[in-house]
Amino acid sequence: MDKTMKIYVCSPYTKLLRDCGEHIVKIAAIDGMQRANLFFGNTRVEFFSPVLANMYRYESMRHDEVMQICFAQIKSCDAIFIPYFCKKEQDKYVRNSKGIYMEYRFAKQNNIPVYFANEKMRGLFEKVALKGESNG
């Protein structure tokens, strides 16, 4: 039997929560999981949503503390997936998410594969990550 991959599905949290509330944060996380499911198709995968798993458990912790938990969760996965959202006003939360950029950089630094829902998002993340690396 083929090995089942575990995929960490990134989704925006902090700014989306502040701007739109818990319900929209959950909808965005579920939408990201659905997009991952479409992307991976018939591949044997299990999806993990850090937002759905962590949003209440760690809500009183500082962002940097929660990100350390997310990094440990990424290490327990075979890859990460960065989605996109069709509506530009929703997609900006992915493009501008400090946490997702941190997850991306962590995955790259630890040789964990990163999958993107589309090439435009890949190009944006690679460009910003390179800029971040040159700035220290």
Mean pLDDT: 88
Gyration radius over CA? 14 Å
SSE string, helix = H, strand = E?
Answer: EHHEHHEHHEH
DSSP strand (E) fraction? 5-15%
Note the overall shape: globular
Instruction: Outline the low-pLDDT stretches.
Output: none
- Number of E-type strands: 4
Q: Order of strands side by side in the largest beta sheet?
A: 2-1-3-4
Distance between the termini: 44 Å
In this structure, how is the largest beta sheet organized? 4 strands, parallel
- Provide a count of the helices: 7
Helix content: 55-70%
Structural classification: alpha/beta
In short:
It contains seven helices and four strands; from the N terminus they run E-H-H-E-H-H-E-H-H-E-H.
How would you explain this protein's 3D organization?
The longest helix has 19 residues, at 22-40. Strands 2-1-3-4 form a four-stranded parallel β-sheet, sandwiched between helices. The chain contains seven helices and four strands; from the N terminus they run βααβααβααβα. The chain is globular, with a radius of gyration of 14 Å. The protein is an alpha/beta fold and 136 residues long.
Features:
alpha/beta, 136 residues, globular, four-stranded parallel β-sheet
